[in-house]
């Protein structure tokens, strides 16, 4: 129905009110917990896989592929899919006035099973009751001190999985999926493994990272190093040896040490202790290969920074002193542990691949071909 002249005038007045957008955004924030809940349900139902298999699908077509006789299912699904479309997780079109038809976007492809892996299990971990309960203690942790996770569960987040087999499985599945996606992307761009002979993955979990690396570089002798309760569930991979231990005591020797999402788990003091152990385990020209998000010094808008900031708050609530860091903070850790500096080698899927090196990097005498994208940060000469 065409709006009346009075309605049009009222609409113009509303849009001239500068508070419309702030108020709308405030209401979006108020209801922001809805999106991850709908995402989680969509993953549990396999909606993204159904749409991927069909190419595009209506809510009725999707419901017909679910184990349900609920006549309301298509209506419920359509409301969920509509929401996901408003967040660009899905695209939507209507053909000849019929039902809305939904399709995947570049974002939702990360939640459909791609060669058996996706970001879905990582969302399940973050939404798991064990993690979610920690948020209830954030205010008390600010006022009284302590780590929210510890206040709820009586131990820190890396001890707890050893006592809870269900959560241990949730955690390991999340890390397996995230690692498989990210490491495969890293190997498309990063060439720093080509000339290595022995690589130690510190905090390597079940060995997924090294299995991917050695599949591409079978000449590498690979050592997967993690806590004993993790290693006991590790999978046997060709060329990968599993060793249990405590990285804050010592780490196995290698010509390179790999760490993905390890430094952000721990406080500066823990990281210094760990990096000093890495320094001892490396030869003179050895390096630590680190995969982490990097925060800008001043907050910026955009999905990358928001993702890293949100991860930073997850580290705050769940881990012992864990946090995301700026370039300066990474350099301070590097120098504090005795290393010479950092090379920012390549940027992959919102993470930097960094090389922390023992010897001062010399552009003129290096045998390495240095891409323009390199950013080298090292200790200034005295």
From TrEMBL:
Domain O-methyltransferase C-terminal: 135-340
Catalytic residues identified in the record: 264
Residue ranges constituting the O-methyltransferase dimerisation domain according to the UniProt record: 27-113
InterPro entries found in the cross-reference section: COMT-like, COMT_C, COMT_dimerisation, SAM-dependent_MTases_sf, WH-like_DNA-bd_sf, WH_DNA-bd_sf
Gene Ontology BP term (one): methylation
GO molecular function annotation: O-methyltransferase activity; protein dimerization activity
SUPFAM superfamilies cross-referenced by the UniProt entry: S-adenosyl-L-methionine-dependent methyltransferases, Winged helix' DNA-binding domain
Keywords: Methyltransferase, S-adenosyl-L-methionine, Transferase
Gene3D superfamilies linked: Vaccinia Virus protein VP39 (3.40.50.150), Winged helix-like DNA-binding domain superfamily/Winged helix DNA-binding domain (1.10.10.10)
PANTHER family: O-METHYLTRANSFERASE
UniProt-recorded name of the protein: Caffeic acid 3-O-methyltransferase
